[in-house]
Amino acid sequence: MNLRAKYDIPANSVITIAGTVGVGKSTMTNALSKALNFRTSFEKVDANPYLDKFYSDFDRWSFHLQVYFLAERFKEQKRMFEYGGGFIQDRSIYEDTGIFARMHYEKGTMSPVDYETYRSLFDAMVMTPYFPHPDLLIYLDGSIGDILDRIRLRGRAMEQQTPIAYWEEMHERYENWIDTFNACPVLRLNINDYDIISDESSVEPIIERIGYFIRQAHLLKK
Ligand SMILES: Nc1ncnc2c1ncn2[C@@H]1O[C@H](COP(=O)(O)OP(=O)(O)O)[C@@H](O)[C@H]1O
Ligand SMILES: Nc1ncnc2c1ncn2[C@H]1C[C@H](O)[C@@H](COP(=O)(O)O)O1
């Protein structure tokens, strides 16, 4: 019996993985899609025409980058629901506004008028009854020390040249954001509690918890 059926996870589920840069979202997306036989929806980092420029000059490019991410993630959201679900998504659309756009606005690297334009676009696209929310958001949590190690280990040049204070602020914002997030059910995982890289079988207890959370959420809806 496959793990999806064993833990009673509906084949049309959409599960999104959230968490700060470097915490392990892409790795988790791959592990869960393989174990559940679900499709993946990834952020396209290398093909992003603004990301490098953004890291060199936040003031100049933060609005362009947010609009780009919003469009890309909205298209992905549409694609996942047009397929009828069965997806693991690497990062949710909610983090774009709740973490990144807000952080740059509050740091002063996105102007108030740009932020207002971005927010009204986001609200019109996402904060409507027609927007399909994921069945579950898995929040990956870890210490800032472990996350900085992982950012270094992955070695993306644009992230290496970014001051550590940027990642520290983001980490703190994520902790506050997840405490108030309520657009869909949340399963929190601490990165010290699993090791899907050296032990593939450690994905099974995670899938068991996913099944439990999705069932609970469906019971609450009834
Ligand atoms: N469970 C894990 N154990 C050890 N290293 C991990 C684990 N998950 C991810 N990593 C490593 O951490 C780095 C960042 O992971 P990644 O999945 O790309 O993070 P994200 O998508 O959240 O930015 C990569 O080098 C990856 O190999
Ligand atoms: N909405 C965003 N604004 C700014 N930067 C963003 C946004 N979404 C993702 N990013 C950046 C952060 C990382 O450098 C890459 C990929 O994210 P990762 O967490 O490694 O998957 O894009």
Automatic annotation (TrEMBL):
Signal peptide: none annotated. Gene3D superfamilies: P-loop containing nucleotide triphosphate hydrolases (3.40.50.300). ATP binds at residues 19-27, 150-154. Residues 15-214 form the Deoxynucleoside kinase domain. Keywords: ATP-binding, Kinase, Nucleotide-binding, Transferase. Belongs to the DCK/DGK family. This is Deoxynucleoside kinase. It comes from Mesobacillus zeae. The lineage of its organism: Bacteria, Bacillati, Bacillota, Bacilli, Bacillales.
